[in-house]
Design goal:
Elements (H helix, E strand, L loop, with lengths): L2 H15 L12 E4 L2 E4 L2 E2 L2 E5 L3 H5 L5 H13 L4 E5 L10 E3 L2 E2 L1 H16 L3 E5 L9 H11 L14 H15 L16 E5 L13 H17 L4 E3 L27 H5 L7 E5 L1 H4 L5 H23 L3 E6 L13 H19 L4 E6 L24 H40 L2
Parallel strand pairs: 4-5, 4-13, 5-8, 8-9, 9-10, 11-12, 12-13
Antiparallel strand pairs: 1-2, 2-3, 6-7
Helix pairs in contact: 1-12, 3-4, 5-6, 6-7, 10-11, 11-12
Pfam families: GH5_mannosidase (PF26410)
EC number: 3.2.1.78
Keywords: Glycosidase, Hydrolase, Signal
Length: 428
């Protein structure tokens, strides 16, 4: 981008939200200004990855090297953000054995992850509960409540039962108030953490009006913010449109009305930025690859536009990918590279034009020796040759270049302001 173009966008940003105050502090916390992430007063673009397994391997001294290796390789590819689980509910190796009872060894695994991310300059998004049964999720919370005598009909009562909500609020407080045994920093005070996520892919299909999930998000967002006002918060939504925007219903893949509402849910006070996931291979398995790419483009265009014009918040593509296990995938990684390229192009073009897209996190990053964790979507950066690794690194360089252009424009603006001030002083 030419310097005067970056300067114009920066001036628009400053006029819209102001450039002074907490967002300009050099304290290492990622914050939001308008439709932008900022870090120490400068624009911050999130090129990153998902790695749900980090805590569980971090809890095993024999496996910790894979955590370090993955984060080191990610940093080498210019990746700046990782999303992972801060939950594991029920079972012998869980984080939370039962309501309020925690496995210290597993918690120390998360401590290790945060300490290593800090060393490698990677910001973390921590998700606090799963919508699905894996790692316990809301099903486990509901079962705990039943064991305490609660009469609960379905797992969707996770969102309404006061006992279940109390369990979850306690988990939020426990994680946010955790003192890292390695760094000594309380999680709520740790700038290594970029954001909290209320739930991985929240859905409430028993109430397609969206009111149940809307109420839950409002209550839990307020709870998080009552404990931690420093970190950003997002919902974990996949991006499906709901009752508040019937004209957008056609954007959803067919059959995906799940009780979530992209616009209404992200308008909740305390929700700092919007998220969208993108899996056309899962949502539209009957379509060929070119048709899935066309859907992907329209899906992202709609959400980028709505985040900017309606929500006026940044948008993070928090999950996307293409599985090698899909029928018709073919040899090589050309189809996956095309999906990555399409997502990255939408993010970059929006960011360059001052739009709401602020980054994308692919699913999922693995280290060497983790074949059993493979789900078809995995990327192993250390495994060469990898065309996908090149696509990822190229996006990192482009976003870094864009950030530098904004930084140069900001410096030029500052110098121009100083010169104007001196001129005015000399004329008095």
């Amino acid at each position: 981008m030419r310097l005067h173009g970056a300067l114009a966008l920066l001036l628009l940003l400053c006029i819209h939200v102001g450039h002074q105050g907490a967002d300009a502090r050099g304290d290492g916390f990622v914050r939001v200004q308008g439709t932008r992430f900022v870090l120490n007063g400068s624009p911050f673009f999130a090129n990153g990855f998902n790695a749900y397994w980090l805590m569980s391997l971090g809890a095993d001294p024999a496996q910790r090297g894979k955590v370090t290796s993955a984060l080191s390789q990610a940093a080498g590819a210019g990746l700046t953000v990782a999303r992972t689980w801060a939950f594991s509910d029920g079972g012998s190796n869980a984080l939370q054995y039962s309501p309020g009872r925690y496995n210290e060894n597993t918690f120390q695994g998360l401590d290790f992850v945060l300490s290593e991310a800090r060393k490698h300059g990677i910001k973390m998004i921590l998700s606090l509960v799963n919508s699905y049964d894996s790692f316990g999720g809301r099903k486990q919370y509901v079962q705990w409540a039943r064991e305490q005598g609660q009469s609960i009909g379905s797992d969707d009562e996770f969102f309404t039962n006061p006992v279940v909500k109390g369990f979850y609020k306690n988990h939020i407080k426990t994680v946010l108030m955790r003192v890292n045994t390695i760094t000594g920093v309380v999680y709520k005070d740790d700038p290594t953490i970029m954001a909290w996520e209320l739930m991985n892919e929240p859905r409430c299909p028993s109430d397609l009006s969206g009111r149940t999930l809307q109420s839950w998000i409002a209550e839990m967002a307020a709870h998080v913010k009552s404990i931690d006002g420093a970190h950003l918060l997002e919902t974990g939504l996949e991006g499906f449109y709901g009752a508040s925007s019937p004209s957008r219903g056609a954007v959803n893949p067919s059959g995906y009305q799940v009780g979530a509402d992209f616009l209404a849910n992200n308008r909740v006070p305390g929700v700092d930025f919007a998220t969208v996931h993108a899996y056309p291979d899962q949502w539209l398995p009957g379509l060929d690859a070119p048709s899935q790419l066309r859907f992907l483009g329209a899906w992202l265009d709609a959400h980028i536009a709505d985040a900017g014009r309606v929500l006026r918040k940044p948008l993070l593509v928090a999950e996307f990918g293409k599985s090698r296990r899909d029928p018709g995938y073919g040899g090589g990684d050309a189809q996956r590279d095309a999906v990555f390229g399409a997502v990255y192009a939408k993010v970059y073009e929006s960011a360059r034009a001052g739009g709401a897209a602020a980054g994308a996190l692919f699913w999922q990053l693995l280290a060497e020796g983790m074949d059993s964790y493979g789900d078809g979507y995995e990327v192993v950066l250390g495994r060469a040759p990898s065309s996908t690794a090149g696509v990822i690194a190229t996006q990192s360089r482009r976003l870094q270049g864009l950030a530098r252009a904004f930084a140069r424009a900001r410096k030029a603006q500052h110098q121009q302001g100083k010169a104007s001030g001196k001129g005015a002083k000399g004329g008095n």
